[in-house]
Amino acid sequence: MKFRNVPAAAFGWAMTGAIAFAPAAAQAQTQARCIPAADAQAVAAVFLPSAVRAVRTRCAPMLSRDAYLKQSGDRLLSKLDGEARGQFRSAMRGINRIAGTDLDLSTLPPEMVQPLVDELVRNKLGTSNIDSKGCKRIDRGLALVDPLPASSLSGLLVMVARLGLEHRSAKSGRVDDAVSLFKICDATENK
Question: What pLDDT, on a 0 to 100 scale, did the predictor assign at position 22?
Fold first, then answer.
């Protein structure tokens, strides 16, 4: 399996992980839930460090010593972890919106939820499908976006995912099952 659209796939995996929090009844609904872009960005910010860790673990044996992830991976993760801590409550609000639940996940301490997020991402990311060529592409992509602040990385991820969701929806008339429970919308669409 080729690994082509890294940002959209990573966001899709993050949202798929978020959906794992959803009750079965919410998953059975056919109408897509509207998640505001700001909440989607917070979800991406919380899931992104786990995704980078999983990719780094998979790709480490396939990358040279001078690869970005080997040279700067710890610094990147530190930056992403800092952003994730600051976005936790908003991310849980986004997950609640996707799940369609009144359960307020934001009342749980981040240190209790983060291990669940890490495990969800590790299990759902599908890094075993990333080959050496994919690892090099991901490494190069991360090096290119390195100068951006963490908030811009999660924002970029949401923008690319939103474009991908809109494109797939327009092309096929529907979105993939894994993400059909939500759409990323402007705050005004949610009212």
Answer: 46
Report pTM: 0.74
pLDDT tens per residue, range 89-130 = 888 888 887 777 777 777 888 888 888 888 888 777 778 889
How is the chain split into domains, by residue range? 6-21+30-190
Q: What is the mean pLDDT of residues 122-144?
A: 90
Mean pLDDT of the chain: 78
For residues 88 and 46, is the Cβ–Cβ distance under 8 A?
yes
Longest CA–CA span in the chain (Å) reads 51
Residues whose CB falls within 8 Å of the CB of residue 142, separated by 6 or more in sequence, listed in order: 52, 68, 69, 76
